[in-house]
Amino acid sequence: MASATEILAAGNAQAVADVSVETQLAVERFLYRQAEIIDEKQWDDWLALFGDDGIYWMPSEEDQVEGDGEPNVFWEDTYLMQMRIARNTHPRAHSQAPHNRLCHVVSNVIIESEEANGDLIVRSRFHCAEYFRYEVRNFTGKYRHLLKKTGDGYRIALQRTDLVNREGPYEYVLQWWL
Predict the structure, then answer these.
(1) Phi, psi of 141 (to 5 degrees)
(2) b/e map 23-39, b = 16+ CB within 10 Å
(3) 175: in domain
(4) What's the rounded Cα separation, in Å, for the pair 78 and 34?
(5) Phi and psi dihedrals of 81, rounded to 5?
(6) pLDDT-derived band of residue 37, with 50, 70 and 90 as boundaries?
(7) What are phi and psi of 100, to 5 degrees?
(8) In a domain, 177, yes or no
(9) Which range of residues forms the domain containing residue 73?
(10) Selection from 24, 69, 78 nearest residue 50 by Cα
(11) Which CATH number covers residue 38?
């Protein structure tokens, strides 16, 4: 069986699973809630969306198939995400003064496949505006999620974020997740 990274890298832009309206709505609400949680900087709630071994992945190349051991913008497990949160929210985090503000819009939520156990492959599009130091940066791209069905709802096993402007010049480093 292919790894999760290979599955998300090999997405079929035409694939659409025949899922129930309830499943579609649950996934849309999950992704919209994730965006809201990030915008409101509710970091414990955001981390809780990930499974115990969940990964946030932003590859540096569009055709990248592997994340672990490869150059990435982000390849973070829960521990690394916790470290980034602690670093960025520390009172002496001068790189974050004044604090930024984010605004995400998520759309075009399409469930590509549903496994018998309820796990899903989902693709969507996003736009994120970041206001920081009197300037706005815009990021757009696509998400691909491997969502695991649990007794408490869905949990992110792997989130892949592909930026449209991944190779663009940036005045400062990405500090937060998109």
Answers:
(1) 170, -160
(2) beebbbebbbebbebbe
(3) no
(4) 15
(5) -65, -40
(6) very high
(7) -80, 170
(8) no
(9) 4-9+26-163
(10) 78
(11) 3.10.450.50
Q: Which two tokens stand for residue 13?
A: 């832009």
Percentage of the chain modeled with pLDDT above 90: 54
Given a contact cutoff of 8 angstroms between Cβ atoms, the answer to whether 136 and 127 are in contact is no
In a domain, 172, yes or no: no
| CA proximity to 160, closest of 51, 48, 7 | 7
CA nearest to 160, candidates 91, 61, 29: 61
The pLDDT tens digits for 98-120 are 677 889 999 999 999 999 999 99
Q: What is the pTM of this model?
A: 0.87
* Structural domains counted in the chain: 1
The two tokens of residue 165 are 């402007």
In a domain, 114, yes or no: yes
For strands 153-163 and 120-132, give the pairing: unpaired
88 or 175, which is more confident: 88
